[in-house]
Fold this protein.
Amino acid sequence: MSAPINLNKIKKERNRASRRARADENAVQFGQTRAQKDLLRARAEQIARNLEGHRLDTDKKDG
């Protein structure tokens, strides 16, 4: 006799593969290119530097 097969495990693996394939298709269709991601990252860093440069010092001073 051959070893028994767990049908639930096979079903889960098939569903996982199907979801992964759908996710890959969506990533291609709706995802961002590396250039777009780099641009967004650069803009976020620039905004963060700008905010940091305009931050007020709130150190408590005696006096």
Remarks:
- The helical segments are 7-30, 34-53.
- The chain has a mean pLDDT of 91.
